[in-house]
Amino acid sequence: MATVGALPRPREPAGELAQGSPVTPGRQLRCCTASGCRAGGAGPLIEALRQAQAVADPAANGLVIKSVGCLRLCSRGPLLAWDGPGGPALFALGSTDPGTAPGAAIGPEQARALVLAAATAPGPDTLAALDLEAWRPQALLPEGSPSPGPSPVGVASAPPPSPGGIGLTWDQMDLDHPFFALQQPLVLLHCGWIDPDSIEEALALGTYGQWRRCRSDLSPEAVRAMVHRSGLRGRGGAGYPTGLKWDTVALQPPGPRFVVCNADEGDPGAFMDRSVLEGDPHRLLEGLAIAAFAVGAESGFLYVRAEYPLAIERLRRALKQAHQKGILGPGTGLELELRVGAGAYVCGEETALLQSIQGQRGQPRPRPPYPAQSGLWGAPTLINNVETLAAVPAILRRGAEWFAAIGTDTSKGTKVFSLSGAVRRTGLVEVPMGTSLRTVVETMGGGVPAAHGSPGGGVKAVQTGGPSGGCIPAHLLDTPVDYESLQALGSAMGSGGMVVVGEAMAMPELARHFMHFSVEESCGKCLPCRAGTVQLEQLLDRLLAGLAEPGELDQLEQLCRMVKATSLCGLGQAAPNPVLSALRHFRAEFLAACRAESPRAAFAREPFPAGPALGPLPGGRP
Ligand SMILES: Cc1cc2nc3c(=O)[nH]c(=O)nc-3n(C[C@H](O)[C@H](O)[C@H](O)COP(=O)(O)O)c2cc1C
Ligand code: SF4
Ligand code: FES
Predict the structure, then answer these.
(1) Which of 122, 287, 304, 426 is the most exposed place for a label (fewest CB within 10 A)?
(2) Residue 451 backbone phi and psi in degrees, to 5
(3) Residue 387 — very low, low, confident or very high, per pLDDT cuts 50/70/90?
(4) For residue 243, which ligand has an atom nearest its CA?
């Protein structure tokens, strides 16, 4: 039995949660149907479970089967959480064929056995002992296999065989594992517990309570003061103090104002915002409504990239429900609209995003004026990131001081990270600011699996901040994750993507990968970024082809600094960061690449000749 992870219960007071509400029935199976688990067949899985319930023993009638957002350990998806005696417990459905989505492969008898076990098991252990193989469709059982084994709990007799099917695995996750135990859900508090398509469940847990409180009991000044005191800083990348930004918008001359939620999330390796949208959209809507109240805006927009179809679907439904309930929309003082962006990375930059909302080409413009002074149609406009806004209801509910007590002196609250790359446990992690990289990557994530060129656990670096950030080498893993510490190392918090790099990865290759991303995504408006990123990529290509002289590294650095200093927007200003940080922490690898006589051949077979941190290079490029 594999034992990795479980999920803490929501820690906020239950609020309006009533006994017997749809959130906490006697027994339920919470099926993660967020994007990660969908890739593992979560959609067909929940369908199969519901169909199985319809034809199963009446004992299964009391079981609630519901769709929820991310349960955190995305790499093991599809995940199912079980609530019942001795629960909650968390299970991963896997398949013996790595190319098959297990959720899509489950047979009707297996689904029925699972539903009956979930409905009748006296405790998690019994459910964990469920042998799905005993109910595997017989057509694909190896020759000479015994006929179906002992009946799963609650199933009176073996079902008739049916054609098709693959081997399924059924593992209980250990909820006491640090991956789960060290999480402090605040933004993700209800994610994984509530059905994101049910406003009733959100209301039952107190969502929109603070929005109501704002309108009945609080002044905009009081709300802004609370956000100030909380120390909340923008989670979109720059870490700008949220209260200060809200004041700037609120204190502009009288006239219309707008609020905008930036849900563009284009950083490679980042999926935190998507998880909020997919798992608890009403929390975000409440945060945006509170922000609008605090700055005096009566209309606003949510800007989501088109590559997030499920997030768009759920957000659209949530908006409709909030309108139908009279929580948002006509008569409530706030009209919100959803806008779908085509997916250009630069459209996450605030001025480009505003252009895009206005129906113009999504290109940045110089600041000042800042959007807070002159944004949509020239009116003061507040732009905040999804996670920033999703933290606001908790600040109002639990108090600014409660929030400010979490984290470090300068970085308050929690931060959601999407942990990916060469790491054993890939998924969503919400931890207090100031948690060390080592805790997240090694203690929670489990380090690098052997398959990534290391005997196991050997982290070479951690990439934070996406194409605007940089790589932090393994010997600095004790760095606390806060805005200033990461910046001091030449990286950035960014929006929360955390990509683990194993020993097998060559840092010049990684730097080139990010530069290529910036070349592709540069909007072309200003010369330093349009041409400079291309030249940087060409220099890196020369280096990787073994054509560069060591002196060219200075040229590389100089060009990096020029592009940083002269580009118009954050994309160009930060595009050289991955190269500069790689040069700073892994210079020996760049020098070694200069010296290699036939590096393309060397990449495929040989380790670089020198440098303690150097491992064999992948033959990743042709
Ligand atoms: C190239 C580029 C892409 C960006 N992408 C995003 C994004 O996807 N989401 C986001 O919230 N902020 C993004 N930002 C930052 C925004 O410009 C802006 O600072 C942020 O939305 C403000 O919200 P916050 O104060 O809550 O962080 C991006 C910035 C740049 C330069
Ligand atoms: S820095 Fe790059 S992305 Fe930004 S305006 Fe200039 S060309 Fe466009
Ligand atoms: S998407 Fe299902 S656990 Fe993250």
Answers:
(1) 122
(2) -60, -20
(3) very high
(4) 1
Instruction: Kindly state the DSSP code that residue 355 receives in the 8-state scheme.
Output: H
Domains (range + CATH), the chain: 27-181 (3.40.30.10), 199-403 (3.40.50.11540), 414-502 (3.10.20.600), 507-605 (1.20.1440.230)
* pLDDT tens per residue across span 465-498: 999 999 999 999 999 999 999 999 988 888 899 9
Q: How far is the CA of 571 from the centre of ligand 2 (A)?
A: 6
> Which residue, among 32, 30, 124, has the nearest Cα to 75 in the 3D structure?
32
Side chain identity, residue 226:
M
Listed residue (76, 104, 108, 105) closest to 92, CA to CA? 76
Place of tokens 């749809």: 22
522 Cβ inside 6 Å of ligand 1: no
**Is residue 250 within 6 Å of ligand 1 at its C-beta?**
no
Q: What is the pLDDT of residues 573-610, one digit of tens each?
A: 999 999 999 999 999 999 999 976 544 444 443 333 33
- Beta strands 299-305; 258-263: pairing state: parallel
In terms of average pLDDT, the best of 129-133, 383-387, 457-461 is 383-387
pLDDT at 163: 44
CB 584 within 8 A of CB 490: yes
In sequence order, what are the residues at sequence separation of 6 or more whose Cβ sits closer than 8 angstroms to the Cβ of residue 146? none
pLDDT > 50? residue 158: no
Joined together, the tokens standing for residue 555 give 């040229």
Residue 535 tokens, joined? 């030249």
353 CA: nearest ligand 1 atom: 17
Ligand nearest the Cα atom of residue 236: 1
Say if ligand 1 is within 6 A of residue 351 CB.
no
Establish whether residue 435 lines the binding site of ligand 1, counting it when its CB lies within 6 angstroms of any ligand atom: no
77 lines ligand 3 (CB under 6 A): yes
383 in contact with ligand 1, CB cutoff 6 A: yes
Predicted TM-score of the model (pTM): 0.90
What is the per-residue pLDDT across 37-54, written as a single tens digit (0 to 9) for each? 999 999 999 999 999 999
